[in-house]
Amino acid sequence: MGGKYCGASRKRGWRGLVAAAYVLVAVACSAVMHWHLRGESLDRAEERLVSMCEERARMLQEQFGVTVNHVHALAILISTFHYEKFPSAIDQETFAKYTGRTSFERLLLNGVAFAQRVFHHEREMFESQQGWIMNTMKRELAPPQIEYAPVIFSQDTVSYLAHIDMMSGEEDRENILRARTTGKAVLTNPFRLLGSNHLGVVLTFAVYRPDLPDDASVEQRVEATIGYLGGAFDVESLVENLLSKLAGNQDIVVNVYDVTNASEAMVLYGPPSLDDQVPLLHVSMLDFGDPFRKHEMRCRYREKPPMPWSAITNPLGTFVIWMLVGYIICAAWSRYDKVSEDCRKMEELKTQAEAADIAKSQFLATVSHEIRTPMNGVLGMLDMLLGTDLTMTQKDYAQTAQMCGRALITLINDVLDRAKIEAGKLELEAVPFDLRSLMDDVISLFSSKSREKCIELAVFVCDDVPKVVLGDPWRFRQILTNLVGNAVKFTERGHVFVRVCLAENSNVEANQVIHGTMNGKDGKVESTANGAFNTLSGFEAADRRNNWQYFKLLLSDKESLLDDLDSENFDQNDSDRVTLAISIEDTGVGIPLQAQDRVFTPFMQADSSTSRNYGGTGIGLSISKCLAELMGGQISFTSRPFVGSTFTFSATLKRSYKDASADSNRSLAEALPDAFKGMKAILVDGRPVRSAVTRYHLKRLGIIVQVVNNTSAGLKAFSGQNGATISREKPTMLFIESDFWRPETDVQLLNRLREQKNGQLSDAPKVVLLVTSEADKDKYGSIFDIVMCKPLRASTIASCIQQLLKVEMPERKENQNRPSFLRSLLVGKNILVVDDNKVNLRVAAAALKKYGAKVHCVESGKDAVSLLQPPHNFDACFMDVQMPEMDGFEATRKIREMEMKANEERKNKLALVEGSTFVECHLPVLAMTADVIQATYEECIKSGMNGYVSKPFDEEQLYQAVSRLVVGTTDSAV
């Protein structure tokens, strides 16, 4: 039994030993596998770390290289178009726009600035040319030194560098000196950037003259330097953007160092210290092209590599993830390349379009000049011909030719306006003008046409619209003339109604007023009981928003807003802007539905028969649309075929707090008399819209109006019945609309009223009939005291009432636009006319002699200079611009030089005479040319001319030029 026990014990020992050995072997194998898997995992982790770090370093260097290339291109651009260019093709505004639009090409730079190299002996002239004084970095006056580097051009993001001398900073000075000697982009020490407070460096690039050879020496580079381009390099934001584009940023930590001083490496990006417990670390060198500075990128894992067991379950997922990351990066770069190529193509197309636009503008200017030059002779000779004794047939032929010539000039002006708008060269003026007087003037242009067609033509301006506004009255008038002219041309019956109100006071939103959507449908207006419509003439209109129910909401008995503002002091700011909504309603032929989408297309008509039946070029509406948009508004229309059209446009103007007549030379206002204030009148009119319009014009004269529906009610009002009485202390008037006059009954009522008042003739009412046709004047002239033909104007009404009531009115100033006033300006004046074209010379001389001027003519600039040698006895000179040998610009410059020299000599002589008064000699010189582009006008002013008269010039142009320059001048004998 003992042997058995011992044998069993030995077996259990061997089993334990085998089990232990098995466990030890299993543990050993597991440990070996564990360490093997862990080693492989660490190797893969290290390889992945190296790949990601090198990839980021490569992307950073590529981005830096692209930025440097674009800065280099900008340097070439400056050296080509700025250096030794007088004037320079680049200014601050151009530089800011260009660098702002191309900032996407310099992703590493917050902004770009150009500092010009200036020596000490050039400082005074430089500061005088620039109009500012150089400052140091501390905003102090730059001290004297050998040379300076003031910033003259800067991107908007670094505009704070303007006027600063970059040589005033020690580090910037060192950077500039290294940049111009090496010819490469150099970097400063890291520092905190303004604004973002990120760490970054400043990149400096020298700009050389274009003639610098490629193998230039250091001395040649320094001598050829004309300035420096600089920009802030935001390392922190750049690396952050790069990491955001790549997957896996959470696994690694990236640090960028400046290791120029190896003992004191500076952190540009990332945490200040690394975790020593993380064993893997990779360093990539960064070469930014600066031989004096060194940078490197250090990458490490954020955490320790995972244990071996994770490497068993994650390889496939990691492989898939990295494949997806690679695909995303590849797709992103592919998209980036495609976008870059598209941008390059767009830039090329933009350049081609700009070149084509310039060529088109030059072509139009040349053609305009070539056409205007002979047209000046044609119209001038026709005008001279009409001043001779002609038979009726000859006079008719000459007037027809003159009318056709003026139509051609108008067409040329329209085409040039269109070209200016497309090129962005059309600028609007800002002068005060009387809006109501301007509206009256526009209506008067079409009065004869409306009377021939027997249509109602009227204008109405709401009371809350300011009396005087600040804007461009000539362009505003151009829009109105185009729209009203079209309305009158296409209307054969009914009315043309122009209405002006504030857009915000409409009972619909401003955008609904501007954008009509009822073309061809749902545009009916409500009619009255007798079948007529509640419109100006009783005919149906295309836009229901102009009916009486809508129109009466705009009426107000309040005084003009301008009267309320006169007693208070307001600053002109954004609240002074007013948006006007102007509608032109007609009851004409309307616009076909299929043609409404091309109404504003230049040179397009609604259909092929339009130009044949009505004439026109189809350019007026397109110009009106562009002008309205330039005024901050829009234009649209509502039209129904065979019913009519309503064009509506808006314009943003400013309130003016001074009288529009302050600038008498440019004013379009006509002062209304105040002798009729307080008078009262009765108006017989059953149409509420039309009666409101008539009341508006009478109210402008201060006349109080009572409106009744028929003549019987009006006569009762004079008799004091129905509580309607008129003061007997003032003259009374009765206005009757012709279509509400019933001769078979109303004549007896009118005679009865006159018999009742026969005892007191002063109280007898003055009866005025309002008609739309000149033929009605003879028809009703014997019945009424006066027959007034529409369209109504406040000034016309005032003239008729003054004649009717014998009201004494103060003498009005002589109309300065009349030939008599122009004659008073020119009579006896000695004027020199210079033109190489003999026909144009004869035309200009005849036009000036017509008003009493003494004209002397020469055919060259040299002759003009010799005649104008001081002393001379000329009062003004009309100078042609384009002449052989010596053009008008050069001749004017020589004239100004002679005047300056003569003035200096006279001033020195008179200084010795006690009590003498020095009067400077200055001869008014006006340019005469067929060029009407802005560049020609600027060149005229630059050369010393006082004004500009385009060919062919008419009486109004001549008046404007002479009234500004000749009035008050004395004999110029010096």
UniProtKB/TrEMBL annotation:
<comment type="subunit">
    <text>Homodimer.</text>
</comment>
<feature type="domain" description="CHASE">
    <location>
        <begin position="86"/>
        <end position="298"/>
    </location>
</feature>
<dbReference type="InterPro" id="IPR003594">
    <property type="entry name" value="HATPase_dom"/>
</dbReference>
<dbReference type="InterPro" id="IPR006189">
    <property type="entry name" value="CHASE_dom"/>
</dbReference>
<dbReference type="GO" id="GO:0019955">
    <property type="term" value="F:cytokine binding"/>
</dbReference>
<dbReference type="InterPro" id="IPR050956">
    <property type="entry name" value="2C_system_His_kinase"/>
</dbReference>
<feature type="modified residue" description="4-aspartylphosphate">
    <location>
        <position position="880"/>
    </location>
</feature>
<feature type="domain" description="Histidine kinase">
    <location>
        <begin position="366"/>
        <end position="655"/>
    </location>
</feature>
<dbReference type="Pfam" id="PF00072">
    <property type="entry name" value="Response_reg"/>
</dbReference>
<feature type="transmembrane region" description="Helical">
    <location>
        <begin position="17"/>
        <end position="37"/>
    </location>
</feature>
<keyword id="KW-0932">Cytokinin signaling pathway</keyword>
<dbReference type="InterPro" id="IPR036097">
    <property type="entry name" value="HisK_dim/P_sf"/>
</dbReference>
<feature type="domain" description="Response regulatory">
    <location>
        <begin position="680"/>
        <end position="805"/>
    </location>
</feature>
<dbReference type="Pfam" id="PF24896">
    <property type="entry name" value="Receiver_CRE1"/>
</dbReference>
<feature type="domain" description="Response regulatory">
    <location>
        <begin position="830"/>
        <end position="966"/>
    </location>
</feature>
<keyword id="KW-0472">Membrane</keyword>
<protein>
    <recommendedName>
        <fullName>histidine kinase</fullName>
        <ecNumber>2.7.13.3</ecNumber>
    </recommendedName>
</protein>
<keyword id="KW-0418">Kinase</keyword>
<dbReference type="InterPro" id="IPR004358">
    <property type="entry name" value="Sig_transdc_His_kin-like_C"/>
</dbReference>
<dbReference type="InterPro" id="IPR056839">
    <property type="entry name" value="Receiver_AHK4/CRE1_1st"/>
</dbReference>
<dbReference type="Pfam" id="PF03924">
    <property type="entry name" value="CHASE"/>
</dbReference>
<keyword id="KW-0808">Transferase</keyword>
<dbReference type="InterPro" id="IPR001789">
    <property type="entry name" value="Sig_transdc_resp-reg_receiver"/>
</dbReference>
<dbReference type="InterPro" id="IPR011006">
    <property type="entry name" value="CheY-like_superfamily"/>
</dbReference>
<dbReference type="Pfam" id="PF02518">
    <property type="entry name" value="HATPase_c"/>
</dbReference>
<keyword id="KW-0902">Two-component regulatory system</keyword>
<dbReference type="GO" id="GO:0012505">
    <property type="term" value="C:endomembrane system"/>
</dbReference>
<keyword id="KW-1133">Transmembrane helix</keyword>
<keyword id="KW-0597">Phosphoprotein</keyword>
<dbReference type="GO" id="GO:0000155">
    <property type="term" value="F:phosphorelay sensor kinase activity"/>
</dbReference>
<dbReference type="InterPro" id="IPR005467">
    <property type="entry name" value="His_kinase_dom"/>
</dbReference>
<dbReference type="GO" id="GO:0009736">
    <property type="term" value="P:cytokinin-activated signaling pathway"/>
</dbReference>
<dbReference type="Pfam" id="PF00512">
    <property type="entry name" value="HisKA"/>
</dbReference>
<dbReference type="InterPro" id="IPR042240">
    <property type="entry name" value="CHASE_sf"/>
</dbReference>
<dbReference type="InterPro" id="IPR036890">
    <property type="entry name" value="HATPase_C_sf"/>
</dbReference>
<comment type="function">
    <text>Cytokinin receptor related to bacterial two-component regulators. Functions as a histidine kinase and transmits the stress signal to a downstream MAPK cascade.</text>
</comment>
<dbReference type="InterPro" id="IPR000836">
    <property type="entry name" value="PRTase_dom"/>
</dbReference>
<keyword id="KW-0812">Transmembrane</keyword>
<dbReference type="InterPro" id="IPR003661">
    <property type="entry name" value="HisK_dim/P_dom"/>
</dbReference>
